[in-house]
Every structure is written in structure tokens, then in C-alpha cells.
Amino acid sequence: MSTTPRPIDSDADTLAVDAPFVIELLRGFIADGVRKVGFERVIVGLSGGVDSSLVTALAVSSLGTDNVVAVFMPYRSSDPQSRIDALAVCESLGVGAEIVDITPQVDAYFDRFPDADRTRRGNKMARERMSILYDHSMAERALVLGTSNKTELLLGYGTLFGDMASALNPIGDLYKTQVYALARALGLPQSVLTKAPSADLWAGQSDEDELGMRYAVVDQVLHRLVDERRSRAEVIALGFDAVDVDGIVARMRGSQYKRRPPVIAKLSNRTIDREFRYPRDWGR
Amino acid sequence: MVLERSRTGVIPTVAGVPDGRVDAPSPAPEGVTDPAGSVMVALAQFYPRLGDVGANVGAHLTTIASAAAAGAGLVVFPELSITGYFLKDQVPEIALTIGSPEVGALRDASREGGIDIVAGLILESDEHRFYNAALYISGGDVLHVHRKVYLPTYGLFDEQRYVAAGDRFRAFAVPIGGAGHRWRAGILICEDLWHPSAAALLARQGVDLIICPSASPGRGQLQGEAVGTASSYDVMTRTYAQLFTTYVLYCNRSGFEDGVGFWGGSRVVDPVGTVVAEIRGAHESMLLHRLERSAIRRARVAYPLLRDERNDVNDAETDRLRRRHARG
User: Fold this and answer.
1) Smaller CB count within 10 Å for chain B: N or C?
2) pTM of the predicted structure, to 2 decimals
3) By the 8 A CB rule, do B22 and B279 touch?
4) Which of B:118-137 have CB within 8 Å of A?
């Protein structure tokens, strides 16, 4: 794990964002994306972490409190602080929180598979939350907003068809450090801004421990590899740790399947998404 | 400001600083109430429905009528305003010809409203090639067709997969500004603007007005109150206006397609390179501004760059390079 800052090349502000400008753009993105498909409302799985708190705040800013449904879905091992933070976010935004405890359904399932490791359990929880959100989406006539940021999408640090599932993702092109910048600008509760990032799938889980790197470093490396299209060697020459860089590259390649739709066996002359290419906003 | 499609189909008009988002248009010259050769232009920063030609033509007609009612002699719509931009496989399905009834409706609107129109569409040729084109319509006729020459096929763009490239940059006379006044215009569609030779060719043909319909997606730098692409267009529009001592009418679009936001920022740049009217933001809006012949004259008196242009040197050097290229 990188413990010492390595700054690195002169372009240290490469992840800086003009928060009011980006917030305005994302408000427009949400309102447009929701209304053009005939919806007025959105639903967000709110964990009390910074990503889902930011998405909830953006949604409220875009559509108003009456059009945002926040669902908090704890498991019995979830950190009690998550509930405090989620409710604080809802209170600060004036949104009511719906609480759906997923413990009964998760435990009922794993009673049948007691040997499952914690990765399986974590994935299952993420997918239970997804299925609850999509069920409530139908009940509330509310579109599901995604809460995966660019860092975790690029690293594959999410559950396929779980927390990665959504209709619209306002923050999927923002690195984690940029998410924090917007969250600060929107005045989210201090606790949300300062606690260690965690998927909170089991007690004491920490993103940065699992990744073996700090987000501050990961984001700098990713920006140089992905946005600036620098080679591995060029990034290392800037002063980043070769082990970190190689680890990030390996994670990106290894998780590419998570960022693509399922592979379709090619047979006809016009295969979906290969020759059959229409925009999602077809006719809208 | 929420960047969404106007639900009424009517684009709000701005002609000054009513909402604080638009720079004040330059005032009429002192003591001149009806300046000779001047013309009011309207830039319609519009949000088309992707692939819904009927709805878009309807919205054009509404906007044309309000531009005409506001006294505009020319209304400019963005690139592919009749179709939307990221069409993909819809291209052959929504293509029109000059004889299409939808184009006919715009021709009628220009005749009935006494207003010239620049609108964007996918134009199908007799050979069934599809072009990203802009029409200049005046008095019921299509006066000029520009087929986009530079088709971006990199980054988020994929135009060469779907459309054919145009092969000319031609200036044309436009009947604006009253009888007896000569205005020449040329059209550059979006990416055409990124190639200075295109603007130079129009300048050599004596244009007073470079009309640039655009569908520019916002991306890049997230710093400084604008996307990176906006900064690029800021530089290009001001530079071309100043170097070619011509007005530049830049009309970008509004709205989102598949999550890509178009950043708006439509503007009029005068012949000394000053932004004299601008829509600050990506919202649907119509900008009105009066162009003055006298501003062109003043610019060319102060900066006789076109007079001094060495086309002979340019031609000789171009010929030399062509011969060398031919020799291999």
C-alpha cells in the first residue's frame, strides 16, 4: 500500500473540478434523462457513503425533494454509523428515507449455503439491494440512479448486476476525489465527507485496504492512463510506484467484462450492438 | 437553469440581458435609426428530438415564426437540427432530399415569414449517399447546400461510418440587409471550423459572414466554468472573425443524447473578433443580434488583411507542394 504521497509531475490539479459548473451539468443530465423516458421521479439506494449521498443530493437539486426516493438497505453487519449518516443526508436534503432491512432475505438464502465466503455474501447483498431498488422503481414509478464512480468502474470494484446496475449514472465519469469535491460543494454532512470509504458489506471493510492503494494515488494514475492516454512506462516515469501502476492496469483489464453488455454469439448479418446500432435515446 | 427540452416547443427569445445570461448586443450606431445594410440575425440554440424529424420540423416552424416576428432577417439552427446528432443506424431512415415535404415546409416558412433559414439535416443524394448538410433557404428556395467536409471519426465521433464527405467550400450571395447591399456568406459545419484552410477559402471568396451550425458535445476540462471544447470554440470563432475580418455566427445546440451534453454557447463575433452577443449556457434559447455592414467596413479599414492577402504566394507555394507531392 502506498503510504507516502508521491507528487509527482507538475500537473497536480489535473483532477480539479469547477463544482458549480459540473453540478449544473449533472442536474440537467438527470432531469433530461428521467423526463425523456416519461418518468418524473428517481430512486437511489442510499448507503450513507459519499457516492450515493452525492447522487441523492444531485437528484434533489435537479428534481426536487418530492421526486426523489431514497432507500436505505442495511444488513445486520452494517456499520451503525451508516444508518446515522444516511438519515443525516436525508434530513439535510429534506427527503424521507425508506428503510428496507435485507437481513431476513440474505440470511434465509445463506442458511441453505452456509459455507459461502464473504465475497459471495457481499455480492449477494449488493444484488438483493438491486432487486429491491428495481421493485420499488416499478412501485414508485421512479428511475433507478446509479452510484458507481469512475474509479470503481475502471477498477471493477463493484458487483455486476448489483450496485453497478442502474438506468442513469450521473457520477460514472467522476473519479472518487472529484466525487468528494462535489459532495463538499453541495454541503453534505461532515461525517459523510470524512469517514473512510467502504462498501460496508462486512464490519471494518475498507476500500483502500482492499485495493491496497489510496484513492488519491489511484485517481492520479487512472487519470494519466485513461484520460491522458499515457503508457504504463510514461506514468511510472512521472514518479508513480511501478507496483501500484501495474496493479491498476491489471485490475482494469481483468474487469473489462463488467463494463460491457454480455457477449452475443455472432450469427446473422446484423447482430445487436455490432451492426445494429441505435442510440439509447432513439426517437427521444 | 435546468437543461431540458422546452416542453411547449417554443424556444424563449433573448435579445439583451433580460435574464443575465446573455451579453448585451451592440447598440445601433448613434444617430442611425435604420442603418443601411444592417440585418437582425437569430441564433436558435435548439434541442432536437433524436430521429424525430416531424417533431423537429414542427419546432423549427414555431421558432422561425417567432424569429420573424422579432424582426430577424435570418435564423440559424444548429448542425443536424432537423434530425439530432448521434443518429447511428437511423441515418438512412431519416434522410431527406431537397424535394422532401419537410424541406418544403421550411421553404414555405421562409417565403411566408420573409426570413432566411439555415437548418441542418441528413441529405440523401441520387446515388444514395448520405451527407451531414446545412441548407440556406431564402424566399422559398434553397439557395445553397453545404455538405460537411470534415467528418470527425475519433474520440466520441463516428461520422465517417455513417455519412459521406462533402468536397467544397463555396461562398454565396445572400439577400439580407435590404436591396442594394451585398452580403456574402459561407457555411462551415462544426468540425469544418477546426480546419483553418476552410475558413481561409471562404475568406478568399469574399464572405462577410461565416455561419457555423454546430453540435458540439461538452467534454474535457472540468475547470473554469466551461468545458474544454467551449474554450476551443471561443478561440476559433474569435480568431477567424478577426483574421478574416468577417462576422462569425456560431450556433451550437442544446440538450443531451445518450448522456452526452451539448454545451450551447451560441454567439455572434464581430469582424474585429469581439464577442458581441452570446448565450451563456446550454439552455434552449434564441439570441437576436443586429449585424452592421458598417462594422465590416470599419474592420477592413482598420485591418486591411484581406486586401493584403498574398493569394499569388499562396497559390505558388501550393502548386510547388502539389508538384513535389506528385513526384513522390
Assistant:
1) C
2) 0.90
3) yes
4) none
